Amino acid sequence: MKNILITLSFLLIACATPKKEKAPPAPLPSWANTQVKENILDYIKVITDPKNPDFIPVEDRIATFDNDGTIWAEKPVVQGLFAIERAKEMGMKVSPRPSEKEFLKIVLKTHTGMTDEAFEKEVKEFFDTALHPTYKVPIDQTVYQPQLELMQLLKDHGFTIYISSGGTIEFMRTFSQRLYQIPGERVIGSNFAYAFEPKTNQLNRLQKFEFNNDKEKKPIGIQRNIGKRPVIACGNVGNEGDVQMLRYSQGSKYRSLQLLVNHDDGAREFVYGEPKNTSLNWAQQYKWNVISMKKDWLKVFPDKKEAVE
Amino acid sequence: MKNILITLSFLLIACATPKKEKAPPAPLPSWANTQVKENILDYIKVITDPKNPDFIPVEDRIATFDNDGTIWAEKPVVQGLFAIERAKEMGMKVSPRPSEKEFLKIVLKTHTGMTDEAFEKEVKEFFDTALHPTYKVPIDQTVYQPQLELMQLLKDHGFTIYISSGGTIEFMRTFSQRLYQIPGERVIGSNFAYAFEPKTNQLNRLQKFEFNNDKEKKPIGIQRNIGKRPVIACGNVGNEGDVQMLRYSQGSKYRSLQLLVNHDDGAREFVYGEPKNTSLNWAQQYKWNVISMKKDWLKVFPDKKEAVE
């Protein structure tokens, strides 16, 4: 009896003694300790604090991220690369530098006229085999590591993340879960016109666009799919495509955060801007956070994975 | 020491003895024990059983419900009633039996040209004050109690419920959470054309419809907002509006369930059908479950609430 009690006592003491906790890892490890990072972390701290007047209830913590050039590389735009590769596979004649008219024809032919299942299979094969023309790595590895960390940090703090992209929804939904852990129903994008065929029970994509989720249309896609203004919006400098979305988030009744990725890193990625400097002008006028890839990111892409046998 | 051990032993025995559990309440209490109810319960049982070949993973348990005539009464259509009441308030001349053209004008004038906040306020006032013309109760009390129970039961079994309605999204999102516990981002509906105004940061509704989420358009709204076929679809006989949605759900790779509410209960609700009997014909052809309000529902509306002081 005495032995049992001594053993029990030791166990109790062992359980009751607080373990020396390891400090949690610092957030956003691929981000340099710059003002932008501080603004992000401060924003999260404030809006998650129930005692703070800027507290945002979880159901209103909506963040929208553009895709191309914002959370993965867009030189070239991956969906365009897919269309061209697929067109060649299909035996189509593809000019080295297709005109806009030819390119549209290529996109329509490679994205319509097949079932969802067949299309998904073709996209999967592309992602399994294609290499980025410059980096010579699988496309999956051209996502931006700092952005993956940012999205995860937001999710850890109760945010619901949506993609709002000019890419088409059927294309993006093949990888949004795999690359970003964003399920298909939180992907807002462009779409072709559709026609429903009850006999075959197919929802067929027609050879014309119905909605181009870009520029001033982004708030519309957000209104239709979500019905709330995001409180965080993240886009990029490149083709003026995100300024309305970022502006729209600023109209929230809550304190909001706008982030604009600037492609100024010639050593690790691509340097490009806009002829009229629109996005950076809006960022200055409306006081958005401009992310300098060169200065604010310690790393651009994820570490290379071991080749899978 | 001995006393301590005896006490501990009693505690251990008390904890270890299984408590006699109260039987859980029978599901769907407002549904009569008919074949339809059995089909619903059997379906849920099968698709939630991991050992069953028809098991559906939680992320694919999507259910879409129409609104008018399916989960609340539609005689009259509530959004139309709102439009007419609001038009009168605004001083518009409203004929006793407006033509389609006049009605469209009324809808456009009462739904566009104001901010989201102003619109929501007007809708709230309507719901706070309006009485159903026949039942003389607040509109909130014209929801179908059996359907509330069905949707709750599905949620309890891992389903995600969407509304897919011809009503406009801004209108429905004012009450979807309150009445059905369905958040705004799971409301698929019709919408006006929009124009974004960066200076005022307003997404303005224009005086024309852009998308009418009805009939063959319902699968399109589902594809844009969700990107998966529902495995359960529920609509009603009335204006042929749900047959494509129900058919679309039947094309799922999973075992699916189609439910069609038939308004055959003259004693407790309204009897109405379709000139060409389209919905019931499709139901017969494609073997859907037809819900007879008269026979399958023990109760139509929720019990009357006490008047709030």
From TrEMBL, chains A, B:
Its EC number is 3.1.3.-. Keywords: Hydrolase. GO terms for molecular function: hydrolase activity. It comes from Peredibacter starrii. It is an enzyme of class 3 (hydrolase). PROSITE patterns: PROKAR_LIPOPROTEIN (PS51257). InterPro entries: HAD-like_sf, HAD_sf. It comes from the Bacteria. This is HAD family hydrolase. Coiled coil: none annotated.
